[in-house]
Amino acid sequence: MGPFHLSLRDIINNSLPIFIFTFIFYPLFTSAQETDAEEILRSRDVELRKEIINVAPNVYTAVGYSPANVSMIVGTNGLIIIDTGMNVSHAEEIVNEFREISDLPVRGIIYTHGHGDHTGGAAAFIGGDMPEIWALENFGIEDRPLSLAGLTIQRQRGVRQAGFALPDELRINNGIAPAIQPGRADAFVANLENTAPNKTFVSGREVIEIAGVELELVAAPGETNDQIYVWYPTQEVLFAGDNYYKSFPNLYAIRGTPYRDVLAWSKSLDLMLDEEPASVVPGHTRPVIGKEAVQLALAQHRDAVRFVHDKTIEGMNLGLMPDELVEYVQLPDELSDEADLGEYYGRVEWAVRSIFTGYLGWYDGNPTNLSSLYPSEEGIRMAELAGGIDELREKAMESLDEGDAQWAAQLADYLLAINSNDGRAKLIKADALTSLARQSVNALARNYYLTIADTLRQEEEN
Ligand SMILES: [Zn+2]
To answer: What residue spans in the chain does CATH classification 3.60.15.30 cover?
Structure first.
């Protein structure tokens, strides 16, 4: 009997547990109950699994311990940490893992940008001596104008998009991050009291040396205007921050942020390509290793970002309005078919709308919309068209039953504009949103739909 010939007994002894798991347990508890979209989103878990990855000699990245990646470079007499995770308890777990590799003191921390999921764990890496803490001079610029204005709603919207208010069983993952509870929602806002940058640079390229390691910090506006990438020339490793991760990028965040400069983002990806890295460590998801793979990955992302920008501009110049542009701007198949450009985190549609308003503001160009009816007035007129409020509600129910969840939600909105206490309309909307959530491969949309659906149901119960 050759070594590859298996008897039935061998199969039972060796493969039965795998067989049972693969074909019985796993489908029973996951895919059998899941929609195609949910299965696709869940399949991204493989990118988010917990692991300390040895990217290059003396370069390690912790994936899956916190929503964002945390990297360590081991220098001659100290460590450099690039991004620090979302909160101290995540970061402490990573410190424990890194301490298995080196017990040298942390001499430098570098923030790729000011978002809380990259900065909130910094305190865990600071021991006796204060390390150099590097960032771009405008660090934290994205949130600053909102805070100065006294705007707080983006935090609530942030909790919705991240799914922090949802029960665990409704969360799959966040598209580019595991569905980790943050130690509650407020941890998403960085605690920078003692961990603020103490070394900054203004623009261009800053060459620094920490613990015998020479690094180049490069200003690279994209996801945020304070974004940098870190280039480690000796090992040809590029730490991309959030200008690159394995999803269609979040060119617009539905929690609400100032305009993300999409054209600048594509140019930052050009800069990154020009470095010709041997490996790239994204802000989220696993590193890409190998020059060819890196070039392909970064070029595809650059092409997707540039395409959406340029096609939107083309449509705007034709006089198309945002709702029309969403139909006009479709990624070409060779990009949309790429698994790593799936819309798990960002969405093309949101980017298109954001590019429009980023350049031209809210007015779509149609004079009908210079002074639209108030929602309550429009709702009353729609009810009249339907033959009355009860008939409108009936129509909404029908749409829901026919699987037209988007229209059901829109009709429910008319009803709720007429009467915000219309309990049946709330439940129709809740069911419609749940249905939309379950058809969405986009984790942020899913989380947002489900959170609002949950709120509407709770309101109805009370
Ligand atoms: Zn991030």
So the answer is: 45-308
